[in-house]
Every structure is written in structure tokens, then in C-alpha cells.
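[Target chain]
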Amino acid sequence: MTTASGPVAPIEHRLRFGQIAALYDRIRPGYPDALIDAVMDYGRLDPLATVLDVGAGSGQATVQFAERGLSVIALDPSVEMVQIARAKCAAAGLEAVAVVGEFETYDLGEDRFGLICAATSWHWLDPEVCYAVAARSIAPGGTLAVLSTWPLWRRTPLRPALDAVYLHSGAPLAEMGPMCLAEPDPGALAAEWMRETAACGAFGDQRGKLASWSVTYTAQDYVDLLATYGDHIGLEDAVRSRLFEGVAHVIESAGGTIELAYSTLLLLARAR
């Protein structure tokens, strides 16, 4: 099954990120502040509103909303991710609580949240259930916000050299998800969002906003980033070691850094 954010993965795939929770928290980027502010502006959120961060991971978006004075509940199926989010928010003195649970089955209550946000997590959810759960749990007039970030892997001038490393290492480049797939079409994703939220019948006033940005990584940080993606986590140890060693060598030989372009699409809808 697919949603406006992409294909839906089974629960065992959702949980594999707990294996690298600390690395994930350190190396995965957060979200453009302009898009977080766009959610705030669209939702006209009361400072006392409660936010649900769905599939919160280690709390990147949780922190960004809590820093804006909102009370956030971070929900994630991974115990390891929740532990990091909980500790991070407590250390910063933020108004946030992190709990372990599945969005589709957790007791969220009714008409409770002024904002339900899914930051690079909506595609993990069951589309046959997630809209109904959101509609039940969100307060009337509340905001449903989906943030989807994707790295534009193939735009780097180092791509040919990196492709050669993948092939030499034995990694199945042609099957490795975001490394070789065509870049998502934001317009098509926004149109699908309009269709899905309209079909649900519980949401209106759909909008979208796209942000383009980039991060410059050292060779080691880029390798660490790769190690947080499921298609790399699933490689055989020997293949992954050869791959990461070769990737690091390509980047070091090119000056020691690599710039990775990103796109983040924000999709919004208002509960009727």
C-alpha cells in the first residue's frame, strides 16, 4: 500500500531503527524552521494546545515544536528511540513526554490534539487506519501536518564514483531504495494528499509547501548517515564494511566533504 508520503512498510521494518537510535539522533537532520513556522501559522495554535508527534523517532520535530512553547507527546514504537527523545527533552527542560506505542492502536482519546504531526513517518502507517485515527483524535479545527524529507542522493558530482563503489562492494545498488529511485514528485504527492484527505471526509483546507536545502558532511558523517537507512542496515556486514570504506575514500579524495541536497514537503489539512 502507498500513501501521499510513499510505500507503507511492515512494523518489523519500523523497529529496525532502534538498532541505531543514538547514531540516528546524532546524524539525521531536523526540519527547516520555515516549515515548522508554517505549521504554527496555519494551525494558529494556542500555547496551551497539545501536539502529538507521530513516529517521533528520537524527537527531532518534537524538540522543534516544544521549543515554540507547545506541549508535545512524542509517540514511537521503538523503545530505544523513545528513551533518547525522553532524555533529550528532559535535559532541555521542554514540555514534552515521549511514550512507546503504535499510532494505529494506542489509546489517544478523542478530540484531544490541536496538532497531529508526522515527520518523515506517515509512510510507515497503515493508510486504511491512520486517517480515521487522526480524525478521531484531533480536536475540531485542529491541524494534521505531514512532513516528508528526502535526500537528493544523485545530484552530487561524486555520484559516478560512488556508484562504482556500490557495485564493487557487492551492494545491490539497483535495489537500494532512495539511492537509485527517481526523486519523488512533490506535485503528485500533494495531489495524492488532497485526494486521501478529501476521501476521508474529516479534513479540508489542504495545503502544501516545499523547502529545498542542503547539508555538507564530512566523509565519516556521510558514512554515518548512510548507516541510518534501512537498505544499508540490511546489508551483510562484510558488504557494508567494504561499501563504507569505499564511500569514505571517494569523499576524502574529493576534498573531504560532500554536499547533500534535501527537499522537505509539508502537507497540511484542517479537521472539520
In short: Strands lie at 2-3, 6-7, 50-54, 71-76, 96-100, 113-119, 138-151, 203-218, 257-271. Residues 5-11 have pLDDT under 50 and may be disordered. The chain has one domain: 2-152+183-214+262-271.
